[in-house]
Amino acid sequence: MKSLRGKRVLITAPELKKSSVELSEKDEEARIKEAMKTWQKLDVFAVGTEVYDINVGDKVYVQTYALESGEKIMIDEKVRILIPDTAISIVW
Question: Bridge partners of 78?
Fold first, then answer.
């Protein structure tokens, strides 16, 4: 990835343990959605060109609605979630 433009932030989604039971796609999505409610400190992978107070490597708390609606992108074999910088409430 060369750059991220605008007031956007890419965060790394935590890896979930595989379910021991085969789940339907709908049930897997529900499991992920439920897990998102517990994600508290997420790693910042990249920041947009117009984001000035958040840096790569920071830990952030993101509002759940942004995690659910953010675009999921595979980069370096990991799921990254594209969110607006305004969805970040806390930076550690």
Answer: 75
Sheet strands side by side (includes 78-84): 71-75, 78-84, 8-12, 42-47, 59-62, 88-91
Q: Strand, coil or helix: what is 58?
A: coil
Which residue, among 85, 60, 59, 84, has the nearest Cα to 71 in the 3D structure?
A: 84
Determine the residue type at 79. Answer: V
- The residue behind tokens 């594209």 is 82
pLDDT tens for each residue of 24-77: 878 777 877 888 888 889 999 999 999 999 999 999 999 999 999 999 999 999
The residues, any chain, with a CB within 8 Å of residue 7's CB and separated by 6 or more, are: 48, 50, 51, 84, 85, 86
Answer for the pair 67, 81: CB distance below 8 angstroms, yes or no: yes
